[in-house]
C-alpha cells in the first residue's frame, strides 16, 4: 500500500463482557484478524496459532483481536473449548466487517453466500493500516504478522 489509510474505528463487545474501542488502544500497534466462524477447522487453527504467539505479540507491545460475526456466547465457548489466549470481538451487526471490506459474496460447492473472507490488518501507532493480508492461508500466517509487528 502506498497511500496512508486510516483504520476504520469501532467499538465492539469482547468475550468476558467488556468492549474494545480501536482508537483507545493507541499508540500500541493492533492486529485484527477477521475469521469466518468459531469452532471451524481453519478458524480454530488460525486462532491457536495467534494464541501460541500471543506472548511475543505482547512483548512487542501489540494487541491482537480475532473478529467474527459470532455472538459473545459463541466466542466464550470457542475460547474455553480451544483454550485460546487471544480476545475475541463480536461484529454481529457486520458493520466493522463491511468497513474493513471483508464481508463478501463467497461460493462453496456451487452455492453462493455472504461471509467473512479471512483477512488480517496491522494498525500502527497513529491508527493507520500499516499492512493488510487478504484471503489468508493459515499456515505460517501468525508468524508473518508477528514479523510485521516487530518491523514497525
UniProtKB/TrEMBL annotation:
Location of the active site: 43
Keyword DNA repair: no
Enzyme Commission no: 1.11.1.24
Coiled-coil residue spans: none
SUPFAM superfamilies per record: Thioredoxin-like
UniProt catalytic activity: a hydroperoxide + [thioredoxin]-dithiol = an alcohol + [thioredoxin]-disulfide + H2O
Top enzyme category: oxidoreductase
Any GO molecular function: thioredoxin peroxidase activity
Keywords in alphabetical order: Antioxidant, Disulfide bond, Oxidoreductase, Peroxidase, Redox-active center
Record CDD domains: PRX_BCP
InterPro entries with a match to the protein in the record: AhpC/TSA (IPR000866), Peroxiredoxin_AhpC-typ (IPR024706), Peroxiredoxin_BCP/PrxQ (IPR050924), Thioredoxin-like_sf (IPR036249), Thioredoxin_domain (IPR013766)
Annotated GO CC locations: cytoplasm
Family, similarity comment: Belongs to the peroxiredoxin family. BCP/PrxQ subfamily.
Subunit structure, as described in the record: Monomer.
Function: Thiol-specific peroxidase that catalyzes the reduction of hydrogen peroxide and organic hydroperoxides to water and alcohols, respectively. Plays a role in cell protection against oxidative stress by detoxifying peroxides and as sensor of hydrogen peroxide-mediated signaling events.
Name listed for the protein in its UniProt record: thioredoxin-dependent peroxiredoxin
Gene: bcp
Amino acid at each position: 500500500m502506498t497511500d496512508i489509510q486510516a483504520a476504520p474505528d469501532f467499538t465492539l463487545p469482547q468475550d468476558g463482557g467488556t468492549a474494545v474501542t480501536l482508537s483507545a488502544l493507541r499508540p500500541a500497534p493492533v492486529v485484527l484478524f477477521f475469521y469466518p466462524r468459531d469452532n471451524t477447522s481453519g478458524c480454530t487453527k488460525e486462532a491457536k496459532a495467534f494464541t501460541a504467539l500471543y506472548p511475543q505479540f505482547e512483548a512487542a507491545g501489540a494487541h491482537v483481536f480475532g473478529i467474527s460475526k459470532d455472538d459473545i456466547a459463541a466466542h466464550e465457548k470457542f475460547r474455553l473449548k480451544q483454550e485460546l489466549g487471544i480476545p475475541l470481538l463480536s461484529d454481529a451487526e457486520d458493520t466493522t466487517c463491511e468497513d474493513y471490506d471483508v464481508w463478501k459474496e463467497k461460493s462453496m460447492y456451487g452455492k453462493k453466500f455472504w461471509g467473512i473472507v479471512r483477512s488480517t490488518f496491522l494498525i500502527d501507532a497513529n491508527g493507520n493500516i500499516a499492512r493488510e493480508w487478504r484471503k489468508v492461508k493459515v499456515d505460517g500466517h501468525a508468524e508473518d504478522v508477528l514479523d510485521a509487528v516487530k518491523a514497525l
